[in-house]
Amino acid sequence: MPSNKQRREAAQRRLQRQLERRAELARKRRRNVLIGVTAAAVVLVVSAVLLITGIGGDDTDSAAAEPTPTPATTPGVVDGSDGTCDWTPADTAANPNLQADTGTPPVEVTPTGTTEVDVTTNFGPIGLTLDNANAPCAVASMVYLAGQGYYDDTVCHRETDSEGLKVLQCGDPSGTGAGGPAYEFPTQVTGDETYPRGTVAMANSGQGFDGSQFFLVYGDSQLPPSYTVLGTIDEAGLATLDTIAANGNDGSNGPNDGAPTQEVRIQSLTVAA
User: Fold this and answer.
1) Which domains can be identified in the chain, with CATH numbers?
2) How far is CA 36 from CA 70, 72, 225, in A?
3) Among candidates 133, 143, 129, which has minimal Cα distance to 190?
4) Higher pLDDT, 167 or 15
5) Could you report the per-residue pLDDT of 56-90, keeping only the tens digit for each?
């Protein structure tokens, strides 16, 4: 059990991170004015980049339908590296796709080692090795939600097989692409992230926060370093993903992007003993 002194120190660290994030959000708002002015030019140059949309009060459907450049999250210290994470309540009243009854994970997390996760789908198994050191809060969140059975019997709502983006997106019990838990936490990136075949990463809505949605990369993908890298996918999992990808998608979000043509359902997602 942590001592009173350790609790006070952890609280001080959390307060400092909150103040830093508020300052960063203010800087981003100022920067977004400039981004809006140059957005049209950026779209022409980076039209192949797709936004991996996730939770939030944004217009998720339109964001998913159009190729959209995503500014990289400002690099910084990985939240959770000190053994604690900040969980911010999500606006469940504004977004009915969010689950209001999930509660929040424990503040104290494990910032070292790896965590093995077994995902069972109707197409076969997908084994994940999650990196606690690289994404301590994202891993802690997935472990917490898995313990509630949050991911069980949910569909993977999006499959993309364009030239530069080959992913299967899951983790939204609502199946809409706009769902998530009752909390969110900062996207954990350094600016050096890449997304080769075999990567599992967190999806987000471009606002600098993550929830429950994640994507599984079955082919080398070209994305800005704006998505928390959770860990890696095992060979059996990649074989399962190749089978899913071979079936394609319905194109409902645009060319090469939409719901899998054959439903992909996570039967269970559990932390390995």
Assistant:
1) 4-271 (2.40.100.10)
2) 12, 15, 20
3) 133
4) 167
5) 333 333 333 333 333 334 444 457 888 999 999 99
